[in-house]
Amino acid sequence: MNPLIRTILQRLGFGLITLFVVSVVLSLLVGVLPGDFATRTLGQAATPDTVAAFRREIGLDRPPVERYLHWLGDMVRGDFGSSYSGAGSLSGNRRAVADLIAPRLVNTLFLAGLAALIAVPLALTLGLLAALYRNGVYDRLVNLVTLTSISAPEFFVGYVLALFLANDVYFQIFPAISTVEPGASIFDRAYACALPALTLVLVIVAHMMRMTRASVINLLASPYIEMARLKGSEPRRVIVHHALPNAWAPISNVIALNLAYLIVGVVVVEKVFAYPGIGQLMVDAVRNQDVPVIQGCAMIFAGVYVLLNLSADIIAIATNPRLLHPR
Amino acid sequence: MNNAPNTLDVAEEAAALAEHQPVIVRRTRVERAWRELRKAPLTAWFGIIVIVLYVLTAFFAPLIAPYSETELVGGPFDPWSDVNLLGTDQLGRDMFSRLIYAARNTMGIAVLTTALSFTVGGLLGLLAAVLRGWVDQIVSRIVDVMMSIPQLIFCLVLLSFLGTSVLNLVLIIGILDSTRVFRLTRAVATNVAVLDFVEASKLQGEGLLWVMTREILPNILPPLVAEFGLRFCFVFLTVSALSFLGLGIQPPSADWGSMVKDNATLISFGDPTPLLPAGAIALLTVAVNFVVDWFLHKSSGLKE
To answer: What is the average pLDDT across A294-306?
Structure first.
């Protein structure tokens, strides 16, 4: 298990470096905010005193390094600071960013998880079938359809679904607006986010399927596959028993890449269906220049992304005996 | 003026040659391109025709559009009629005209951004491949880190701090996207940079720029051209997604992404009009993908 642990540590180290750089960039950017930023946040009526107080509150009077270390220390303990909305007002009830993010992160993970649960098995099956019957009618048709659905923006797919499946003019099957009541059962939740999940499935299945097909076909060119074919194994057996075990590494990579893509694609899809996820939160924060919320959301997105890439590498090693037990 | 006798000589020479070797017909570039095109599959033809139509629309937008981009011509959300072919948008501007002007804005920005990303990424990639050593190391590590952050999220963060303007949009997406171009250029250029003819030109004393652009670049052009198409699609979709989120091209400029966002309420009444700008985006990316697919197949002899 030695190389496995070494790789995990290596990748973990690189992931941490990446997150460190992201955090530095995020905190440096606060310093380059345009000058009227405080006025915009506090409103036109803010007195110079209030503006100065606000700048002191968010730490702009302190040197950048100190500010960064302070922020980093808080963040490691799970404290992302407080949102700017409501800053400077006398009541001063600023909400903690962690409290804003937590419920929305759960929603987003639920949506992404649901989409992945449907998309991964579907894409693998379709991809293997396309590799099995390659250059046939089925393969060509699937190629055309997937190329088209990869090219379409997520909001196109989403609105087409909304038009035909959530509309009394055509079929009123699913809700067009995915509102999630707190404490709703898991089936209610799944029903509420059926359309966003379906949109995500359509977008990533195409991608995953094409990459699965390509990586299996790539393997089919190797001599040991030709050997299996020459000794008279049927095509299905060649693919499932001979090609697939070696294809797990590239396929797991494909899955991780697409799950990472899912995390980003979620931003647009959440907007289409007004789903209360972390993507919506971040877009709103960007529009209002609510810096602590942007920083928190960006750190979480980057963290999930790094983690997914990390697990892809680990699976690639774990499924490859040659890497697992080196001579 | 002193060219005249020269060209005559050439013409005579050519005539003389033609008498002796009538067999070999040198085809011009246009003829060769046409021969390739005739063999192209139906999907590639479809793609080329669609792209040409889009480009023509973008160039001649003021001639085709019945109204201007910002003119109020009716009430908000008027239905399709003879006056307003596709109805009006949320402010009462002509939908059809805005669709046409948006071709100009959205495609123009996407082309500009892709060009920027290729200039930056391509030059750095070639530089890293030729110089290697610490230049390569530094640039590659920076690119590694930049690529390990989801691109749309990075865009959102930068846009929020630097402000949403067309210039910022082009710069941010262009620089972020150049990381992918860098990876590809470096990978293919490294293979060429170690070949003998590059070594020879270096020994001959050619400058760095010459080696990069005259020796290596022509040999790695086909994959780069294909990549240009793919990156254009990606940039185009990113710009549209940002506009759809309200953070890209700002009003009153017409743009397909924000047109979808502004008119999305119509969907819940069963009116498919907001799908038109979204479909316009999809159709162009599909077309470019078809052409790139064919080009890749042809230039690399890619066989499965």
So the answer is: 86
Cα-based distances in Å from B197 to B189, B201, B205, B215: 13, 6, 13, 8
Nearest to B153 among A160, A163, A264 (CB): A264
Distance, CA of A213 to CA of B68 (rounded, Å): 48
Classify A108 in phi/psi space as left (phi over 0), alpha (psi -120 to 50) or beta. Answer: alpha
Q: Count of CB atoms within 10 A of residue B174's CB?
A: 21
Report phi then psi at B238, rounded to 5: -65, -45
Indicate yes or no: CB of B153 within 8 angstroms of CB of A162.
no
Question: What secondary structure letter does DSSP report for B265?
Answer: G
- Band the pLDDT of A86: cuts 50, 70, 90: low
Chain A positions touching B285 (Cβ under 8 A) are 151-153
Contact A163 B275 (CB under 8 A): yes
Cβ-Cβ contacts under 8 Å between A and B: the total is 135
What pLDDT digit, counting tens, does each position of A48-69 carry? 777 777 777 766 667 777 777 8
Q: Identify the architecture of domain A102-324 in CATH.
A: Orthogonal Bundle (1.10)
B216: DSSP letter = I
CB A239 within 8 A of CB A215: no
| B244/A287 CB distance under 8 A | no
Q: What ipTM was reported for this prediction?
A: 0.81
* Residue A178: exposure state from Cβ atoms within 10 A (0-12, 13-18, ≥19): buried
Each domain of chain A, given as residue ranges in start order, spans 37-95, 102-324
Of residues A17, A22, A285, nearest to B149 (C-beta): A22
Q: Distance from B259 to chain A by nearest Cα, in Å?
A: 12
Residues 214-253 of A with CB under 8 A from B: 217
| pLDDT at res. B302 | 47
Taking CA atoms, A128 is separated from A54, A135, A218, A239, B187, in Å, by: 59, 13, 12, 8, 30
Distance CA A242, CA A237 (A): 7
pLDDT digits (tens, 9 = 90+) for A141-196: 888 888 888 888 888 888 888 888 877 667 777 777 777 776 677 777 777 788 88
B250 touches chain A (CB under 8 A): no
Distance in Å, alpha carbon of A90 to nearest chain B alpha carbon:
27
